[in-house]
């Protein structure tokens, strides 16, 4: 009889407090580094919306191509090589949880548009750290490190920061912080850039 009452009390407690229990479980999963990034990419990124897309031509500012980078094999590269072609440049880090949460969407864009758009995933971390991260995550994306001071055009106090630039060198879309880059709006914007 006592055991039946305990089961009844437990069921009643769970029924009454299920939302609080669920909240604390999700909170704990957000705190744990192993699960935080996955939860952010599944739940948070779709909810935060697309980056700011500049529809009005007058809003578009000119990009600065004087960016010197080096790849993971220490080969120098200049953004000048992307003049006349759309480009997407993403500033990120392997330790940055929001960067990792939005990364799957950017990888999807790279896989879909990588032949028509130049992608630059730029991090201040060491080549060894970046190579290890890419190998662990089984990612094949073009990752670079700054080879000189970045121009003011790309200065930002937060990462991730991402810029989408058209073939005329005009800023078309930008996000300071995490954004849903794999949205239909962004894909349509990129398709329109490629058609030109």
Question: Your description of this structure?
Answer:
This protein has 196 residues and is an alpha+beta fold. It has two domains: 2-47, no CATH class; 51-195, Glutaredoxin (3-Layer(aba) Sandwich). Helices cover 44% and strands 17% of the residues. The chain is built from five helices and eight strands; from the N terminus they run ααββββαβαβββα. It has an eight-stranded mixed beta sheet with strand order 1-8-7-4-5-6-2-3, with helices on one face. β2 and β3 (76-78) form a beta hairpin. α2 packs across α3. The longest helix has 30 residues, at 2-31. It is globular, with a radius of gyration of 21 Å.
The main sheet comes to: 8 strands, mixed
Helix content: 40-55%
CATH architecture label name of the largest domain:
3-Layer(aba) Sandwich
Q: How many β-strand runs? A: 8
CATH class of the largest domain, please? Alpha Beta
Shape: globular
Output the helix-strand order: HHEEEEHEHEEEH
Q: In oligomeric terms, what are we looking at? A: single chain
Mean pLDDT: 82
Distance between the termini: 78 Å
Structural class: alpha+beta
Strand content: 15-25%
> Which radius of gyration do the C-alpha atoms yield?
21 Å
CATH fold description of the largest domain: Glutaredoxin
In which order are the strands of the major sheet placed? 1-8-7-4-5-6-2-3
Structure at a glance:
The protein has helices at 2-31, 33-48, 97-113, 127-137, 184-195, and strands spanning 52-53, 68-71, 76-78, 87-91, 118-122, 143-146, 161-165, 171-176. The protein has 196 residues and is an alpha+beta fold.
């Amino acid at each position: 009889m006592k055991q039946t009452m305990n089961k009844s009390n437990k069921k009643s407690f769970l029924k009454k407090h299920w939302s609080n229990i669920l909240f604390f479980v999700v909170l704990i999963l957000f705190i744990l580094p192993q699960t935080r990034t996955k939860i952010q990419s599944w739940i948070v990124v779709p909810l935060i919306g697309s980056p700011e897309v500049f529809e009005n031509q007058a809003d578009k500012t000119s990009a600065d191509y004087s960016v010197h980078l080096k790849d993971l094999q220490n080969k120098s590269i200049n953004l000048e090589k992307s003049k006349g072609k759309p480009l997407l440049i993403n500033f990120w880090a392997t330790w940055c949880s929001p960067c990792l949460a939005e990364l799957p969407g950017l990888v999807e864009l790279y896989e879909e548009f990588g032949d028509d758009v130049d992608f630059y995933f730029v991090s201040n971390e060491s080549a060894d750290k970046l190579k290890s991260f890419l190998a662990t995550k089984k990612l094949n994306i073009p990752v670079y490190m700054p080879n000189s001071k970045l121009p003011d055009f790309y200065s930002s106090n937060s990462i991730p920061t991402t810029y989408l630039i058209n073939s005329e060198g005009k800023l078309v879309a930008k996000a300071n912080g995490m954004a849903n880059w794999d949205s239909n709006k962004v894909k349509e914007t990129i398709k329109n850039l490629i058609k030109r």
